[in-house]
Amino acid sequence: MLTKKNPKMAGLVLVGTATLVLAGCSMGGSTTADETMEPTTAPSASEESMETEAAMDPAYDNLVGAGCAMYDEAVPDGAGSIVGMSQDPVAVAASNNPMLTQLVAAVSGQLNPDVDLVDTLNGDEFTVFAPVDDAFAALPAETVEMLQTPEGAETLSTVLTYHVIPGQIAPDAIAGTHMTVQGEELMVEGDADELMVNGDAATVVCGGVQTANATVYLIDSVLMPPSMG
């Protein structure tokens, strides 16, 4: 990692070097070039720590869940990375996440042209529980077919908005009961890498993912509002 030279540090090194040379002369000994330069050949522990901190983006600060490290390794950079998602509004960020293609289709009118929530999701601050593609794949085929029909548009909208909570909620405050945009409550239990939603209905794969306007929790199941049984 390239870093800018610190003029003050450089001055201290020169002074230190001169001191060593003078000391060697006053003692009648000889000081080689290797000996005088030795103190500057390796960075100090504090310098290495500063470089590590500079490389760490705030987007990583609140991540929780066993899947975060795996996702970061699979998508280390670009628009779909942890850092890349933090720079875009939530619907745009989700569209760049390779684990959320089915959710993006559902909220953007691709699954059902009568349901398009993109502008709504991008237009305010939210906490979003985002089912990954495997969660949608687990839905019965007949359910997916129903959601694609004009009659299924209201049901699809109800299910999707049940995954959204007004305002951003960080992982250290997410445990508890929350009112969703849909109008019914969901409950989050556990802490750190063992967050569960509605009992054992869903597990948080990776949470605390920041976007420009939302905090996202990737989950392994599609949630159903209590009124839908």
Automatic annotation (TrEMBL):
Gene Ontology molecular function: cell adhesion molecule binding
Region Disordered, residue ranges: 29-53
Keyword tags: Signal
InterPro entries hit by this protein: Adhesion/Biosynth-related, FAS1_dom_sf, FAS1_domain
CC annotations in GO: extracellular matrix; extracellular space
GO BP terms in the entry: cell adhesion; extracellular matrix organization
Pfam families found in the cross-reference section: Fasciclin
Signal peptide (UniProt feature, chain positions): 1-23
FAS1 domain location: 87-223
Protein name, UniProt field: Putative surface protein with fasciclin (FAS1) repeats
Species, as recorded: Agrococcus jenensis
Origin organism lineage: Bacteria, Bacillati, Actinomycetota, Actinomycetes, Micrococcales
